[in-house]
């Protein structure tokens, strides 16, 4: 296993982008969040993914946010940058013109809305592979993009592009995950993109998770994944069962609305989102706070 793959084995966190009340980037909260995650044992951090509301950040804000996260991290854990588009040429241009100092890899989601064929997906990632100065992790999330990248396509992409090192798989189909694990090239990482099925993915032979829930319970979630990596099936599933209510609540009114509610209740960032996303309702906000408090009392 190569050095980067070894360091990305375990729990990554899809981190939020904190905002001030005026919707500007809250760099002070970025420092608090990064320290909190690292102090509680996460293996790496993913910046400007879906959870980071990247689609509402302009170019200057993305650069500001990237710099703030890199400075807060101080090289302590690997950092991955979300960089995706449904315009292949646009992402190729970004890859050729942007600076990626402080980041170890790119996480690139399948093109959304325009629903390309499997051949289109292959050619899209081939173009990204040629342009990227960093290793690439594919991201398959059909519930958001409208297209499912089949296991066969992923394996073909991975086999023919040496700088494509893994996939964040959030298809929700463990049969597809099993196919990926069984047929992947050597050292190609299978990373769960779904908190609910992360433990089962790891027990099948996957390499870990990029988690939303770990953003608010990093120590607890990291322990669950390490148990699964060590093939402690009973205890990992038992501990997962104990946070099922929180997982349900965090996604009840969308992501990152739920996780920002959680983090604001812990005084780690403000509960501010950019439209079209909104805060969760008052009842859900209260339930999230109560559930997190209960989980921390169990530790």
Helix segment tally: 14
Helix content class:
40-55%
CA radius of gyration is 18 Å
Reported by name, the CATH topology is TIM Barrel
| Helix-and-strand structural type | alpha/beta
| Quaternary structure annotation | single chain
Which descriptor suits the 3D outline? globular
Distance between the termini: 33 Å
Please outline the major beta sheet.
8 strands, parallel, barrel
- Determine the CATH superfamily: Aldolase class I
| CATH architecture level-2 label | Alpha-Beta Barrel
Low-confidence regions: none
Total beta strands: 8
Strand order of the largest sheet: 1-2-3-4-5-6-7-8
How many discrete domains? 1
What do these coordinates show?
It is a single chain. With 299 residues, the protein is α/β, with parallel strands linked by helices. It has a single domain, classed as TIM Barrel (Alpha-Beta Barrel). The chain is 47% helix and 12% strand. The protein has 14 helices and eight strands. The protein has an eight-stranded parallel barrel with strand order 1-2-3-4-5-6-7-8, surrounded by seven helices. The longest helix has 17 residues. The mean pLDDT is 96.
Which short descriptors sum up this protein?
299 residues; TIM Barrel; eight-stranded parallel beta barrel; 14 helices
Could you give the topology of this structure?
Layout: H1 3-7, E1 10-14, H2 27-39, E2 44-47, H3 59-73, E3 79-82, H4 88-97, E4 105-109, H5 118-131, E5 136-140, H6 142-145, H7 151-160, E6 164-169, H8 174-183, E7 189-192, H9 198-204, E8 208-211, H10 218-229, H11 233-241, H12 244-250, H13 257-265, H14 282-298
Helix pairs in contact: 2-3, 4-5, 5-7, 7-8, 9-10, 10-11, 12-14, 13-14
């Amino acid at each position: 296993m190569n050095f980067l793959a070894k360091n990305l084995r375990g729990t990554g966190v899809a981190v939020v982008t904190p905002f001030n009340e005026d919707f500007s980037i809250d760099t002070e909260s970025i420092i608090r969040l990064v320290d909190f995650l690292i102090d509680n044992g996460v293996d790496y951090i993913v910046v400007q993914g879906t959870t980071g509301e990247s689609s509402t950040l302009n170019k200057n804000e993305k650069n500001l946010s990237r710099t703030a996260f890199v400075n807060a991290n101080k090289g302590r854990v690997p950092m991955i940058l979300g960089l995706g588009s449904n315009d292949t040429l646009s992402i190729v241009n970004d890859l050729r013109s942007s600076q990626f100092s402080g980041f170890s890899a790119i996480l690139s989601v399948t093109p959304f809305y325009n629903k390309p064929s499997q051949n289109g997906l292959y050619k899209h990632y081939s173009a990204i592979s040629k342009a990227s100065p960093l290793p690439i992790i594919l991201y398959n999330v059909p519930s958001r993009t409208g297209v499912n990248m089949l296991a066969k396509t992923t394996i073909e992409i991975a086999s023919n592009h040496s700088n494509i090192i893994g996939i964040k798989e959030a298809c929700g189909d463990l049969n597809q995950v099993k196919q990926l694990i069984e047929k992947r090239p050597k050292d190609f990482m299978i990373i769960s993109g779904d908190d609910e099925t992360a433990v089962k993915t790891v027990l099948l032979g996957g390499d870990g998770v990029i988690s939303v829930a770990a953003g608010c319970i990093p120590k607890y979630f990291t322990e669950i994944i390490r148990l699964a990596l060590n093939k402690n099936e009973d205890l990992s599933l038992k501990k997962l069962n104990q946070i099922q209510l929180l997982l349900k609540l965090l996604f009840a009114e969308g992501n990152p609305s739920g996780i920002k509610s959680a983090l604001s209740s812990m005084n780690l960032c403000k509960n501010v989102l950019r439209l079209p996303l909104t805060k969760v309702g008052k009842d859900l906000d209260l339930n999230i706070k109560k559930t997190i408090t209960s989980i921390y009392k169990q530790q």
